[in-house]
Amino acid sequence: MLLFLIRRLLLAIPALLGLMVLTFVLVRVVPADPATTLAGETATPQQVQEIRRKYGFDRPLYEQFAIYVGQVASGDLGNSVFSNRPVMDDVRRTLPATLELIFVSLLLATLIGIPLGTLSAVHHNGLLDHVVRVVTVGGLAVASFWFAIMLQLLFSMELEWLPLRGRIGVNIGAPPSVTGFFLVDSLLAGRWDQFVSSLRHIALPAITLAVPALATIARFARVGVLDTMQRDFVQYETAVGYPRHRIVWIYVLRNSVIAAVTQIGLLFGALVSSAVAVEAIFDWPGLGSYAVQAILSSDYKAVLAVTLVVGVIYAVINILVDLVHGLLDPRVAEQL
Amino acid sequence: MNDALLKVSNLAVSIRGDEGIARILDRVDLEIPRGRIVGVVGESGCGKSTLIKAILGVLPTRARIDAGEIVFEGRDLAKLPPDVLAREVRGAAIGFIPQDPFLALNPVFRVGTQMLETMRWHAPPQWKGRHRERLVELLRAVQVPDPERALERYPHEFSGGQRQRLLIAAALSCQPRLLIADEPTTALDVTTQQQVLMLLRNLVAEFDLSMLFVTHDFGVVAQLCDEVSVIYAGQTVEAAPTRRLINEAAHPYARLLLACHPDRATDLGGIPGSVPSPFAPPQGCRFHPRCPIAVADCASARPIIEQTSERHDVACPRYRLPLPQGATP
Ligand SMILES: Nc1ncnc2c1ncn2[C@@H]1O[C@H](COP(=O)(O)OP(=O)(O)OP(=O)(O)O)[C@@H](O)[C@H]1O
Ligand SMILES: [Mg+2]
User: Fold this and answer.
1) ipTM of this complex prediction, to 2 decimal places
2) Between chains, do A238 and B90 touch, taking CB under 8 Å as contact?
3) Which ligand is nearest to the Cα of residue B54, counting in written order?
4) Where are the alpha helices (DSSP H) in chain B?
5) CA of A125 to the centre of ligand 1 (A)
6) Topology at the third CATH level for domain A94-335
7) What's the pLDDT tens digit per position in A213-252?
8) Residues of A in contact with B89 (CB under 8 A)
9) Where exactly are the structural domains of chain B?
10) Domain boundaries defined on chain A
11) What is the membrane topology listed in the Swiss-Prot or TrEMBL record (chain B) (predicted)?
């Protein structure tokens, strides 16, 4: 198991390096000159030249890249070209917000999607099955931004049940950071009011993200359960007197969930990119909002950092998926 | 006989398929006296597994019982509500041993978890809290090495023979009165097959059970069964005590099947032709197209069942005729 982890981590390094090369070249080939932007509109050519030298923009690309890789390896993502603050600090501030949002969405999607898909499979071709199929196709087809705005209109503007934007009530304030997840930190601090406020704030963006994910998970769960129901062991389990509900919800589901884990892992990646739009709509102070801002201002250090962080997230999720596979399937565990 | 534990009479099962409706079982009779091992023999596709499914009440959803009775301990299982079958029959009164030990167990659960599941729902209430103990005892009885640890392991960690032993122990776990085995040794090599057969015979005696044993191998029947019933294309064609049937088979199908057995046959030609599709079965006696002594009448009416002697039934009016030379290998 440990050996597996080490091997996978080592394997992830060349992939991440490749990613860095790609993005670095892409960002530097984008024809916006960061020095010009930095210097401001009124700057003289000399001033621009100065800045170029100061930040190393005048060096050959490969040198800039080598320096960058060296810094990253030592945990330094460089300073923002703009604020001159360490990019690492920004990432540390915004990443937990995004991860919290994605975790909550995935949790929602999984907790609802898997039972829904299973019920649908159990009532194969019945009324419930048809309803679920229509709803899940709808869930995938609806555009996130439209859905988000509808939610805001209904629950924030019309009913005034939930806040329109932000991560926590302004007058309540953020809990002391331990995990960076407000929902967890507020409980750790014993601040019920902070917890409730975080929950109310995360509800709408999380639902927005969860709906398409839920649709995907429900569809995979449905197909997975239908497939597994055809396996010989289901016949056997019925013939030796397992109750039907135990067969479906325990013995079949465990097998189907194994396949769904890969899907959930892939979804995590998809959610990271959908989060960009959703964060913008709900003014969620996450990595997505940060990335948008960085791109708009040509803050190439920040863009590289965000790309790298997302790459690391993908790599970690991939490893996690394999680990969870191992936990659920003893035959896989043997190979880890 | 009145002391039959299980008596299936005139059972008919049909299934809706893409090609129409198929009579998979057309007329099956079967009797299992208490304490006896009864074999059911027939070629692949004759409906042996379907018969078992009908008894256990686990026919596929598109199948249904058209006619007949399945009387077990005085109750007609064919008419029992599904929940009663699930609660009182499967896993409880009737233990089941499947054909393929490689596919029957759930790959992602521990063997113990799976065996305890049946006990959880069907073991007598006074065993509460001692299910594990009982399983360990049973695993010892079926000669699984290191029973305590075996329960913690996963199916793929066992060989085929060991898995079949586990499944046999599982079938015995709730003290069933009847054991039903569907070709339980087909997937095993010859040596393992012998061991499992010996084990089954001893267990039936030791636990005072009755057993329905499905196979297509007369050799296995001769070794294990007290009585045997031959089934062809969903029709019972002959039933007799094993010795009697092997020495004096009456029905042409039974005679040909016996003649084809590798221990007897000089050349392994088999019976010419093949089992008809249940979607388009021959009229009358379903065997008549392959029968060397068939006459026109055989195609018009289903043969009535005659008794050649006590406990020896045959569904062929022409059973006294010899088979022509060359018809048997
Ligand atoms: N679900 C089904 N749908 C359609 N036909 C079926 C179905 N199940 C079984 N049959 C048909 O019923 C007939 C009997 O099948 P069954 O499995 O009972 O045979 P068997 O005697 O057990 O054969 P084997 O020795 O190969 O296990 C076969 O012709 C088979 O094709
Ligand atoms: Mg079969």
Assistant:
1) 0.90
2) yes
3) 1
4) 48-56, 82-84, 101-104, 111-122, 131-141, 147-150, 160-172, 190-206, 218-224, 242-248, 252-260
5) 25
6) MetI-like fold (1.10.3720)
7) 999 999 999 999 999 999 999 999 999 999 999 999 999 9
8) 241
9) 110-175
10) 2-73, 94-335
11) Peripheral membrane protein
